[in-house]
Design brief:
Blueprint: H1 2-13, E1 19-23, H2 35-43, E2 46-49, H3 52-61, E3 68-70, H4 76-88, E4 92-96, H5 109-117, E5 121-125, H6 130-138, E6 145-150, H7 155-165, E7 171-176, H8 181-192, E8 196-201, E9 209-214, H9 215-223, E10 232-236, H10 249-258, H11 263-274, H12 278-288
Helix pairs in contact: 4-5, 7-8, 8-9, 10-11, 11-12
Amino acid sequence: MAAPLRACAAERLVAVPGRLYVVATPIGNLEDITYRAVRVLGEAGLIACEDTRQTRKLLDHYGIRKPTVSYHEHNEAERAAELAERLRGGETIALVSDAGVPLISDPGYRLVRAALDAGIEVQPVPGPSAALAALAASGLPTDAFHFGGFLPAKAGPRARVLQELAGQTATLIFYEAPHRILETLEAVEQILGQRPVAVARELTKIHEEFLRGPVAEVRAQLAARAAIKGEITLLVGKATSPAVDTTPIEDAVAGLVRAGAPRMDAIKQVARQRGLSKREVYERLLKVK
């Protein structure tokens, strides 16, 4: 009987793998959290936060007293390995971002990947998402959508991304900084044309606002303000039925270049939109010169 007892004791010394919860948190209004999320945060052994100070406000609101550790874009690689080791040791960890669903334009991918590679169970705890909340109230088609995260800050790369998405038959969703929204709307108008858009600002917060309409009109409304503040979600509708574009070719090319597109890319896009060859557009520009 001695040998079996020793075997059982050895088995009890082997750590049972922990579990990683990916927990969605409110994007503004603290009431927008699920019962399950509150329970999981209260039962977790450790909460990995994008910003511990921001998460502490939520935890204090619900009387949750659990240890926290920072997990953000600057320490993600190192911290992911550390947390994966703790998961292998049997800890239960809840991953949260400052707002919304972790990993969606927020850090967390490396930790989830490390946990899965280590054989750790990963469970999502769904909840608020700025992209989906904005889509639901935008008035734009919801049957198909493309989430593009944050557009590039520089004009050239931003124009190239929009050009690549020009053929998407889906509502486009982006996050954008308030100091860049006017530039982005101008680029949308120049590259994608007069599509309907919705600008959702400060979702679920006191100053929540939706601006809806043709891109030029929405941009004009924002441009008339002394300042643009708050977190912004931009939605761009599907292209409407094509209309005859009477803009002179040289003006169309110049508009795309102003929006940040390289000149040759602008020529290609104008040619594609009008059913012309790149050579025909280029020759027309030479004649104008």
